[in-house]
Amino acid sequence: MIGAVDIGGTKIAVGIVDNDGNVLSRMQSPTDPDRYELGIEVIARMLRESAAKAGVALSGIGIGSTGPVDPIRGEFGDVDFLPGWRGKSPVKDLAEVFNVRVALENDGDAAALAEAGWGAGRNRTRMIYITVGTGIGGGIILDGQLYRGVDGAHPEVGHQVIDPAGPECSCGFRGCWESLAAGPAMVAWLEAHAPAAYLHRPGITAQKICELAKEGDAVALQAVEHEAHYLGLGLANLINLFTPDAIVLSGSVMKSAPLFLDRIRGVIGRGCRFVPAKKTQLTLASLGDDTNLIGAARVWHYRFGK
Ligand SMILES: [Zn+2]
To answer: Where are the beta strands (DSSP E) in the chain?
Structure first.
């Protein structure tokens, strides 16, 4: 039984995950971006309560966290939105509290490991996991191993440049995949292009755009076409670069994947002519809203469970 900890910029989720990837209990709490020690106390309390609720003892703890982390040293990196957590070691601190082994990964890598081990990416040795929501992130599995860059760095698939004349991104470039194809980009496109009198304009969200498109709303359908085009370009780049067995798609925007898939496949078919792109399966993630939590547990199995 693994205690799973998913640390995000606004909330921390904790759960107990069994050896088949089932979540037995879960809790969550807001993240205090400045107070790391308090954060560890809150995580420890939630782990104890979740374990008690599930009636189990913890045999290890896995952590998936937003932002750059050093998975080997078990420390937070330069996490923009958690300034008080920079350089701290939740691996060391939670191991001291619970006297079990603890492993840490970036949350995109954690989710990729979960889909590769227990989800839609099972039996795929070359798999790329992509999540499209308020941002775009992911993780890369090559030959069954999590791909790590220099110093264990996590590649940032969301910051590949798709259109250098595109919107500014926090990373320093313009027209990153994330700035053109994450949920907020779909909203921005609609706000810029819908007629002034467009009825659904006030407070529109990516989810609402997808709902309207399903009902045949012409403006929403245009926004969806535009979104699918940019999703397709980023995925086509990944296929040209990695020729993976499968790309597993996840995240809130991908809950409406049927709206986008034909156009995405069209873009890939047009531009990926020198690789066997048809053999790369585009598939939907199968672990649902608990993916990050399940991923955190999978991090432990990946590190220690062999
Ligand atoms: Zn960027």
So the answer is: 2-7, 11-17, 23-30, 60-65, 69-70, 75-76, 102-106, 127-132, 136-142, 145-146, 246-250, 281-284
